[in-house]
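Give me the fold.
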Amino acid sequence: QVQLLESGGGLVQPGGSLRLSCLAFGSIRSINTMGWYRQAAGQRRELVASSGDSTIYADSVKGRFTISRDNAKNTVYLQRNSLKSEDTGVYYCNADVMDYDYGDTSSWGQGTQVTVSS
């Protein structure tokens, strides 16, 4: 079974920066795509950025957020700069993993709260 552990959330002022990290561990044979999703209060979960065969960003974060991976550590990062209040929400890590026991699976982290406020 594969699990994802996120870290790096918290309270930050508008214009500030914050980096999120997500570590995948467990019975991992290989990892294809890793990405970050955001869910604001009362809204649907939406893609922020993903890294796989290609790198994708939501229009709202292009030029401000950067996704990167350390494949040797099974870790994905999301560097977020010039933060705005609308970036507030719970950030979830997602990974498409080839599990030794269960084959191709999509795993989610527990989420980390990010609040952008003065």
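The radius of gyration is 14 Å.
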